Amino acid sequence: MTTSSRLHRTLAIACLALGACAAPPHDMPPQDTRFSAASQDSRVQFIVIHATEEGFADSLRILTEGPVSSHYLVDATPPTVYRLVNEDQRAWHAGVSSWGQFGSLNAASVGIEVVNPAPIKTATGLVWNTPYPQAQIDAVIVLVRSVARRHGVRADRIVAHSDIAPQRKVDPGPRFPWKLLADAGLMPWPDAAAVARQRPAYERQLPAVRWFQERLASHGFAVSQTGELDAATQRVIAAFQMKYRNSRNDGQPDAETAALLDVATTPGGLLMKDGTPFKP
Amino acid sequence: MRLSINYLARLACLAIALLLSACAGAPAGLLVDRSYSATGQDSRVLFIVLHYTVGNFPSALKTLTQGQVSSHYLVSDEPVRTYGLVDENRRAWHAGPSHWKSHGNLNASSIGIEIVNPGYADTPAGRVYAPFSPRQIDEVIALVKEVARRHEVRPERILGHNDVSPQYKQDPGPSFPWKRLAEEGLIPWPDAIVVNAKRPEFELQLPDVAWFQRRLADHGFAVPLHGELDVPTRNVISTFQMKYRPANIAGQPDAETAALLFAATSPGGMLMLKPSPSDPGAKAWTSRW
User: Rounded to whole angstroms, how far apart are CA atoms B49 and B70?
Assistant: First the structure.
């Protein structure tokens, strides 16, 4: 190939790349595009964090060849970020899911799969043995920051797969260090001083199950308001604990969980890294 | 000369790299391996939601470009013209609180199309909805067809604003000719044979309110399931009637509505009168279909 034909080909590819980017609607009725709406934003409203519950090779195969996918896959050794789906497209990571008024979150989210093994089933429940290496979490933090900034994702909409599908999913599990994401300024965290103030009252008198259910729903979870400590409610409590109190995620109502939930669902109770209240 | 051509080629390569990264929105300060691509992916656009503006064109344009609401497209009336107000890759704010099946808050997963039409007037003879001109409907059909084709929107996910928000919204109302969209292959339509076969049975014995509620929920509506014919339930029945039986939209259960609802929620009861422009062809995975 001569240099000039290479140049022509390169320029042709450049034009194609531009075209793909703008996606010109070639069969559209002629359109007037002189006006643009002020009220618009990104289709990406959530970032959903998952654990693969598989090794890297199997994770990559499942997420690229199967009926499930994610926008990003973050390996641990070495810490590497793989982009599997363009952010403009929908990946199939969340499944049946809801958060607040949002349902079926795939279309409204960027999914990030973090390589980490599945929990082990024991007689007393699931056990998560493998911590997330710091370097892998560092990569997740840089990635989440970039996605959140570019799409303007609200800090309280960086969620776990277990948050949006608590009846089916436990990933990324209690070993995922959400607090480090809060410390990096990515998401809000319950005001520790307020939690400490609330806790003694809850030590004396634990709220009714109905109170937990109402507060969990106002936090964003899909939870039936049965007033009963049924298995479904325990799974939602466990999902809340995995994020904010990961030393024990047994799904049982307790004073610390009540204090965290109280503060998390009270206006001004969630703080950003600099100590300012989180504002939606 | 040769050198300068090489230089140009390099510049072109650099331009491609920049374009590609701008296109993909590359995370800054992070090395991202892009050598793999997932089979399981599709468009974020799952729904097309049709609205009427109520206001005339100048006021609709002002509201949709300067107000707290917006839509991807606005189709004017005189003259008929399509205005693109929000890029399809972005979220417009047209649906508000909304539900369809397991989907909630549909703005992020939809394209919103506003059609200039005055809506309704309450008169001594009752509520009267303004007609749409055939020329305007032709434009809407061409637009919907093209959006549906590019995003592979499923025919049953081309909806009215009232379908996804039946307690608050009437638009695009009973004057909007949904049947024409069915005849163009854009949406499915209840099989007339099934409807006609079931109707006499329902004339003899109308199903109870709980049956209507369950079927309306199966169809996709957010509807109470308590068995009472309350105002929210009548609003949903009325919304269903506006699309499939616009002659009477009182929201009362009747045999014809029951027969239509039976067809709409029975396997094989909905027909495509023409092939859909979103025909998926051979797809490895079938999340949308």
Answer: 12
